[in-house]
Design goal:
6-stranded parallel sheet, 4-stranded parallel sheet, Rossmann fold, 333 residues, single chain, alpha/beta
Length: 333
């Protein structure tokens, strides 16, 4: 019978490394070529894996992914959908079992047996406490907390907003509007939007006219259309609009076209997220690129690393964003 030691001799690796590869240990860090070489050699030599030894400390990792959206709403939001898919793809590559939970699923019973939780979106204090009772290995994606008492992965909103506004002011804009969205946690408390906070901070520090051009509704195309139309009908427009999401920007773009405003000749428009559709609007949308896929990948890798930690020390990981300049912004003539 072919043994792990035989494969180790053939591949010139240690028996321990070969064993962990054959058992799909997600905490083992080896090149993909090495992993494939061991699996291929085991197949070629006719290695038959022994039945699971109950005394062994190793077992496949099980991770719960909790989405704060319903499945239907997630399909309408490319930001959160992209994060979840990237998270799952990274975990799948390490042969991790995934338990998925959406907001509209009332029972969380399946999550009781997981080794860790990756929670995507905005959650109430009660929900956070509930998740921490299940496991100490919890990571929250896109949820800022004043105190670091759980692991979180957030965006660098401050520099992202400042980069956007630095660009608009460099084009000569001094009257800049803000179209944002309102998000509520499950306990009906409003989640504070860092984009609006840093937008106001920047405008105040740079003497910009903005207060009468701030509107908030939802993070949807429809709300972007409504807010922009309301601003148009007021007969008082800024020279530039900063939208808190590309979806809002697309709705605003539609309203401006309907009322015969030209972008960027009459008004500049800048979005946030860099959704796939933003490069194909007319004109292509200048926006802030948010690395959704990278956020999911980092969260998954952090969870895999935490498995070997007896004591979890919470940390906040901040991910940078990048300004993507296209054709929807122009200098004031």
């Amino acid at each position: 019978m072919i043994t792990i030691k035989d494969i180790a001799l053939k591949t010139k690796l240690s028996s321990a490394t070969v064993s962990r590869i054959l058992n799909h240990d997600p905490t083992l860090k080896v090149p993909e070529t090495t992993r494939n070489r061991v699996l291929e050699e085991a197949r070629r030599m006719g290695y038959i894996k022994r039945k699971f030894n109950r005394r062994s400390t190793y077992r496949p990792m099980k991770i719960g992914i909790v989405q704060w959206y319903t499945m239907e709403k997630e399909l309408q939001d490319p930001f959160y959908l992209a994060i979840r898919i990237a998270t799952e793809n990274t975990l799948h590559r390490s042969n991790v079992e995934i338990i998925r939970h959406f907001k509209d699923e009332t029972s969380k019973g399946e999550l009781a047996s997981v080794d860790g939780l990756i929670c995507i979106g905005k959650f109430s204090r009660e929900e956070i406490a509930e998740f921490r009772k299940i496991t100490d290995h919890v990571i929250f994606i896109d949820m800022n907390m004043d105190r670091i008492y759980v692991n979180s992965l957030v965006l660098d909103f401050r520099n992202a907003v400042f980069d956007a506004l630095n660009y608009l002011t460099s084009l000569g804009h001094k009257k800049i509007g803000f179209l944002g969205g309102i998000e509520m946690t499950s306990d009906q408390n409003r989640y504070p939007d860092s984009r609006r906070y840093f937008f106001q901070e920047y405008c105040q520090n740079h003497g910009l006219v903005y207060k009468r051009y701030v509107k908030e509704d939802e993070f949807t195309i429809e709300s972007g259309y409504r807010m922009m139309k309301e601003m148009i009908l007021s007969k008082d427009l800024p020279t530039a609009i900063f939208a808190a999401s590309d979806s809002i920007a697309l709705g605003a773009m539609r309203a401006l076209f309907e009322y015969h405003y030209r972008i960027p000749q009459d008004i500049s428009l800048l979005g946030f997220n860099n959704d796939p559709s933003s490069a194909f609007t007319n004109p292509p949308l200048t926006t802030i690129h948010v690395p959704c896929e990278k956020m999911g990948e980092i969260a998954a890798m952090t969870m895999l690393e935490m498995r070997s930690q007896k004591k979890v020390y919470p940390r906040r990981i901040t991910v940078p964003c990048e300004l993507v300049i296209r054709q929807s912004c122009a200098s004031i003539k």
